[in-house]
Amino acid sequence: MTPAFADLPVGLPAGCAGARIDVASVSPMVPDSARRAEFIAGRLAAAESMRRVGVVDGGVLGRTSDGAPAWPDGIIGSISHHSGVACAVVSADARGLGVDIAPLLSDARLVAVTRRCLSEAERSRWPEPREVTVVFAAKESIYKAARPLVGRYIGFDEADIIEQSGGSWTARLEERLASEIGLGWVTGSFAWESDLVYSILALEG
């Protein structure tokens, strides 16, 4: 079976390549494990993304000590999966990269994410469910892009999403994180496809 890949609906930063795949197309390989199918689909999307930047054989991705993908030398990347879709984005130029897929939040999940992930100012600034979902996905992208650089847990309160419009979002970073990565502000992109939002952030090298 040859996997069928598609482009991501979100605009990719310069120098990046990405791919996505339906997890259902992988499920026959591991019919007894939905979680394993998601894992394999993410790795297949990563391999296709690397092929698109010229890495023909990136080998089998291992894991770092904290469970993140171990990318080949000279490549950084990020993987996400949710709601039957897996995707990956890679770059040979950026120093940090984060991609996230999040479903439109509602009901109890919306309340929980709003309380846990948004500051009081963000709750006032972004009251709508779609806005809250973008804030959540943006902060996940920041975490994934910055975590390998700082080597520590990054809290939701270390980024303040101050703008989201026209397919892009901007975050002001808390002083410690800003100092560690040498950036006070970061701007990423997002796009909705049905009730899924895709968010991506690249930290330039």
Structure description:
The chain is an alpha+beta fold and 205 residues long. Helix content is 32%, strand content 31%. It has five helices and ten strands. It has a five-stranded antiparallel β-sheet with strand order 6-10-9-8-7. Strands 1-5-4 form a three-stranded antiparallel β-sheet, covered by helices on one side. A hairpin with a 2-residue loop joins strand 9 (185-193) and strand 10. The longest helix is centred in the C-terminal third of the chain and has 22 residues, at 129-150. The chain is globular. The chain starts with 15 loop residues before the first strand and ends with a strand. The model has no long low-confidence stretch (mean pLDDT 94).
What strand line-up does the widest sheet have?
Answer: 6-10-9-8-7
Straight-line N-to-C gap: 37 Å
Number of strands: 10
**What value does the Rg take, in angstroms?**
17 Å
The overall average pLDDT, rounded, is 94
Strand content: 25-35%
Short description:
The mean pLDDT is 94.
SSE order and pairing:
Elements: E1 16-22, H1 34-52, E2 62-63, E3 69-70, E4 76-82, E5 85-91, E6 96-103, H2 107-117, H3 120-125, H4 129-150, E7 159-165, E8 168-173, H5 175-181, E9 185-193, E10 196-203
Antiparallel strand pairs: 1-5, 2-3, 4-5, 6-10, 7-8, 8-9, 9-10
Helix pairs in contact: 2-4
